[in-house]
Amino acid sequence: NAGVTQTPKFQVLKTGQSMTLQCAQDMNHEYMSWYRQDPGMGLRLIHYSVGAGITDQGEVPNGYNVSRSTTEDFPLRLLSAAPSQTSVYFCASSYRGRDSPLHFGNGTRLTVT
Amino acid sequence: GQQVMQIPQYQHVQEGEDFTTYCNSSTTLSNIQWYKQRPGGHPVFLIQLVKSGEVKKQKRLTFQFGEAKKNSSLHITATQTTDVGTYFCAGLSSGAGSYQLTFGKGTKLSVIP
Q: What is the CA radius of gyration of chain B?
């Protein structure tokens, strides 16, 4: 049982480049979400999904896109990377939604130069 | 919007000393969740408190939810080096048919052997 799998673990981008962070879960969780973690800022919600075909914005959505075509996968797309997007990104899922415990992936450390 | 304040930001203790972190919300919460993140790791769910005045224990860890459901605390008795990490609270609030889960900025615990 792999849980929540994120790829890649590390990524370096140049300003203006685009990329997709992958997230997959094998727990049949309906709820999936993306957080970014910056020093001293805690965890901030970027986008979330309550089920396949349904996505919504979180606290800091600008510069990011998501889609949820299947229950298992929830990729995060950076359209045109900026240095302000340098951060650690965590994907998290839960069985029922935000009132259920979140299961986090191992994270992706992204640097934008 | 909802704010969750967590104090202290840092705590250094000698091994064997006790440790407490506090979480305060600007709004009444539906529940509160606690997570632990080891250095270089991802957040791991510890516990969820739902009822007013609720107290739960996990070995040396004691979690409390305030009577007004606006504050919570995590107390560790006789810290060990394995307790090192950052402890986050996350408060769930509801309103207008939606839920919002807001993380505190965390308390980073260092244990001096």
A: 14
CA distances from B37 to A37, A43, A46, A78, B82 (A): 12, 11, 19, 25, 12
Which residues in chain A touch residue B90, judged by CB atoms under 8 angstroms apart? 43, 102
Residues 19-38 of chain A whose Cβ lies under 8 A from any Cβ of chain B: 35
Rounded Cα distance, A94 and A103, in Å: 6
Nearest CA in chain A to B102: A44
For CA atoms B20, B26, B32, B35, give the dihedral sign.
negative
Torsion of CA A46, A92, A108, B37, to 10 degrees: 110
Q: Among partner residues B30, B42, B90, which is closest to A106 by beta-carbon distance? A: B42
Q: For residues B113 and B110, what is the distance between their CA atoms, to the nearest angstrom?
A: 10
Contact A75, A21 (CB under 8 A): yes
Query: For the segment A5-45, what is each residue's pLDDT rounded down to a tens digit?
Result: 999 999 999 999 999 999 999 999 999 999 999 988 889 99
Q: What does the alpha-carbon distance between residue B53 and residue B61 come to, in Å, rounded to a whole number?
A: 16
Contact A42 B104 (CB under 8 A): yes
Q: Give the minimum alpha-carbon distance from A87 to chain B in angstroms, rounded to a whole number.
A: 13
